[in-house]
Amino acid sequence: MKPLATDAKPAMVGTVQMFRLTYDDGAIRTEPPLVTLAELRRTAQILYLRQDHLWQDRQKLEAQIRACIARGEDPAPTRAALAALEAHSAQVSAQHERTTELAAQVRAAARQPHIRAAHAQMQAELARAAAELPALFHPDNALKDTP
């Protein structure tokens, strides 16, 4: 199975925005934003599926506990297994939440260069328009009454 991404940090390669992806097997790769987002989404989907399987396993263990009680047996081993499963489920849930937060951060960081460029363009247009304003209101440019 392909390793899962566990962390993503911004990294500049020359003038290009990239991200350093860390995987659960210890590998580190530098990828562009779209690849990073794809990896984080894949990881989030896998973690979601794991959560779903853990939820199904929990339902089975709870049914086993009820069956043990109905038969008059001691449900302690099954309860211990359920507690371990709940702890693992909490870890997977936290990892899923962290992965979705990382994806949001990568998405925001990937947009920053485009936002800066659009902002600079808007500022230039505003400066150009502001420079033209005095000429528009000059008395020589006033509207003349036409007969």
Structure description:
By secondary structure, the protein is an alpha+beta fold. It has one domain (5-111). 68% of the residues lie in helices and 14% in strands. The protein is built from two helices and three strands; from the N terminus they run E-E-E-H-H. The chain has helices at 33-71, 76-136; strands at residues 5-13, 16-23, 28-31. It has a three-stranded antiparallel sheet with strand order 1-2-3, covered by helices on one side. Strand 1 and strand 2 (16-23) form a beta hairpin. The longest helix has 61 residues, at 76-136. The protein starts with a strand and ends in an 11-residue tail after the last helix.
What is the count of helical runs? 2
The fraction of residues in strands falls at 5-15%
Radius of gyration: 29 Å
Number of domains: 1
Structural class: alpha+beta
Read across the widest sheet, the strand sequence of neighbours is 1-2-3
Shape type: elongated
Strands, total number: 3
Order of helices and strands: EEEHH
Distance between the termini: 85 Å
Q: What's the mean pLDDT score?
A: 86
* Unreliable residue stretches: none
Largest sheet: 3 strands, antiparallel
Proportion in helices: 55-70%
